[in-house]
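Dear colleague,

Thank you for sharing your sequence with our group. We've completed the structure prediction you requested, and as agreed, I am returning the results in plain text so they can be pasted directly into your records. Please verify that the sequence below matches your submission; if there's any discrepancy, let me know and we will rerun it promptly.
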Amino acid sequence: MFMPKVIVAMLSAHLEQAGVTDDDTDELVFTDEEGGPLRYSNWRRRVWLPAASAAGCAGAGFHDLRRLNATALVVEGIDGKTAQTRLGHADPRTTLAVYASAPASIDQAAADVIGERFFGEKAKRASGTKSPRHFRANPSEGSGTTES
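Please find the predicted structure tokens below.
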């Protein structure tokens, strides 16, 4: 499986800085301060939590990166089978049901596509207007139907 070229470059620079060569097949890629294996609890407390907080994602768990990865693949139009394979799932339904989310911006884009498909120019002219208050345009507010 391929890695993004930017990550390959980052890992190469890290390994070069650590003095690890192709001949060092048994060396650890990431180590603690003394060159030993990382301990998850220490790494989480010393590295992950401060980094997540600095990125504006305080409280995010390491596993949230899988969810972010799956969502990014879906949002960017990568097919479900490829996303499934990259995440190591046996079934693409797991990828879509458990990991991938549908961001509001993508839902809005889907609504715009449907509007343009069925209402053409009228939908394009209306794209800048706000929904009436009695209409739930935000998915978190309901089903998108008018209130009774």
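Summary note from our side: Residues 132-136, 141-148 have pLDDT under 50 and may be disordered.

Kind regards,
the structure core
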